[in-house]
Design a protein that fits this description.
heterodimer; A: about 65% helix; elongated; B: mainly alpha; two-stranded antiparallel sheet; 11 helices
Chain lengths: ~270, ~290
């Protein structure tokens, strides 16, 4: 099942990369004679109120999510490794400060934190900038839960034999963190990275639905889902976005199902996904 | 004596976290682009004295550190400030709106826990593949739908929008609850009890629940934060006049006093629920020991 999930994600990613060829039109192109067109051979998912091909927009939104959510996840995991790694390795006062910072970040509900931080950034930016701002924000704020897991992992390793030997050989500071600790934390880091991707996709969708995500005409799963408020019976093509999102997140869930043992039964390390 | 020391430590760390949270939010709002731009100041008809008067009317634009310290001290005295966006006392806004959010969160927490227990308990007592697949599939499906989209769908279909709260909280609780109960059910003493032919209800109440109780209590503390997160989306989408919607509007309008107060209150509420759950769990562990 996990392999099937990977294959589906890879095929979808390829389709999203060549979205213009598959859909035959750009996501921003307006077919002015066909606003709100129903499902047809020409428009497999219909067109939106401005006459834009919904399939082209869905594939472009998929490309954005599948490219930028992993990038944001990589950024937040790197940040978490740095903070959790230093806190766990140094211990003492630094560890206590880091633990308090993690507590503070985790005590605020994720969506509240996101809308507060997103609204502090400029809202009238170009669509391309709004995409980068949204995902950069997700990456910058999503470090706390992974940092807690990584900190615990590093603390367990701090007094291990291989680190003792590395220290005896003169390995210190960041070199020790990067060359000795990080490779041994690889399974934990990968699990945190994989868990963060669907969380960021979901968060972007929530932000988009609340009007704080990617701005038009650039499509994202969040702003495509806003079409759900229109009459679904009249144009069922609108549901395609939700269905595709469910499929992608379901695949990510299958992929991460066996890869996050550290937080599986610790509610304090909770991620909304 | 030990308990009093523990309580004092807990309260002091709670106060520090809340103050730091409020201060950081204030700093972020203060540094955000466009903060403090008053449309009246852009009116070319106003002279320098009028502009100075406008500036003086917004004390947060002066010395930020002094302003923040004053505000936090005032908050501890019970003065929550005046909302710029609503031009009303923050305390009054909160008084009006908290019952709506409390009701939504109550529905979310109670409904979410009821659903999670209904699906997790049978899988701990009678673990069958079909039941696990049904429960896992349902929670997985709900987990993959953004809570705002779920609220929008039910709102458009004229369904019971408060149910969204329970549906949003349920999968997040279920995942951990099922793991905890299955872990407790796999303990050797539970297997021994089963081998002796002890009934499932007895095993659940006397052998599984006591083992999982401390972590379940911790989960209960975290579920407050989960419910508030869901309430923000539901209140914004369905136009419920609650604290979540207020936070959203405050964030959009860069309403400093309101946003700082809300951040401090939310931090306080979630930290207190976590601390309470931790204390109960510690007490429970002590009793068992």
């Amino acid at each position: 099942m996990r392999q099937l999930a990977w294959i589906f994600l890879a095929l979808l990613f390829l389709a999203a990369l060549f979205s213009n060829r598959i859909a035959g039109a750009s996501y921003a192109h307006q077919f002015r004679d066909f606003p709100g067109a129903p499902i047809s051979w020409r428009f497999p998912l219909g067109t939106d109120a401005l006459g834009r091909d919904r399939l082209a927009r869905l594939l472009a939104a998929t490309r954005i999510s599948l490219l930028l959510a992993p990038a944001a996840a990589a950024f937040s995991t790197a940040l978490a490794t740095l903070i959790g790694g230093i806190a766990g390795y140094c211990g003492g006062f630094i560890d206590r400060v880091a633990a308090r910072a993690i507590d503070l970040m985790l005590s605020l509900p994720w969506i509240f934190l996101l809308i507060a931080a997103r609204a502090l950034l400029p809202l009238n930016v170009s669509p391309a900038t709004s995409v980068l701002v949204t995902f950069a924000l997700l990456g910058a704020l999503g470090w706390a839960a992974p940092a807690r897991v990584i900190r615990a992992g590093v603390r367990d390793m701090r007094d291990s034999d291989f680190l003792l030997q590395a220290r005896a050989c003169g390995c210190r500071g960041f070199r020790l963190l990067l060359r000795q600790l990080a490779p041994n934390l690889k399974p934990v880091l990968l699990a945190q990275f994989r868990t963060s991707i669907p969380l960021f996709i979901l968060s972007e969708a929530n932000l988009g639905l609340l009007g704080l995500g990617v701005s038009d005409p650039l499509p994202s799963w969040g702003n495509l889902l806003r079409e759900l408020e229109t009459d679904l019976a009249f144009n069922p093509g609108i549901v395609a976005c939700l269905a595709l999102m469910l499929a992608v997140l379901g695949c990510f869930k299958l992929v991460t199902l066996t890869s996050s043992p550290a937080s599986a039964s610790d509610p304090k390390c909770h991620s909304p996904f | 004596m030990r308990a009093a020391k523990h309580l004092a430590h807990l309260l002091s760390s709670l106060a520090v976290t809340v103050v730091v949270g409020g201060f950081l939010t204030a700093a972020l709002v203060r540094l955000s682009p466009g903060f403090g731009v008053d449309e009246h100041a852009l009116d070319p008809a106003r002279d320098a004295a009028a502009l100075r008067a406008l500036q003086a009317a917004r004390p947060e634009q002066g010395n930020f550190l002094a302003y923040s310290v004053d505000r936090i001290a005032a908050m501890f005295r019970g003065d929550l400030g005046i909302s710029r966006n609503w031009n009303r006392p923050v305390a009054g806004l909160l008084r009006e709106r908290w019952p709506v959010t409390a009701q939504l969160m109550g529905v979310g927490i109670l409904g979410g826990w009821a659903l999670a227990l209904a699906f997790a308990l049978p899988s701990a007592i009678y673990p069958t593949r079909i039941w696990n697949a049904i429960a896992g599939g349902l929670s997985g499906l709900l987990l993959c739908v953004p809570s705002a989209a779920l609220a929008l769908l039910i709102f458009v279909a004229a369904g019971p929008v408060r149910a969204v709260m329970a549906l949003a909280v349920f999968p997040r609780i279920f995942q951990y609850l099922q793991n905890l109960l299955l872990h407790a059910a796999a303990q050797p003493h539970v297997m021994a009890a089963r081998a002796r032919g002890i009934g499932p209800a007895h095993i659940l109440l006397w052998h599984i629940v006591p083992v999982a109780a401390p972590q379940v209590l911790a989960l209960a503390g975290v579920s407050v934060s989960m419910a508030f997160g869901a309430a923000v989306a539901v209140e914004v989408i369905c136009d419920f006049p609650g604290i979540g919607q207020l936070a959203w509007k405050a964030a959009l309008a860069r309403d400093l006093p309101l946003l700082v107060t809300l951040t401090m209150l939310v931090t306080l509420a979630t930290q207190m629920s976590n601390a309470l759950a931790d204390m109960l769990a510690a007490k429970r562990s002590e009793v068992r020991a």
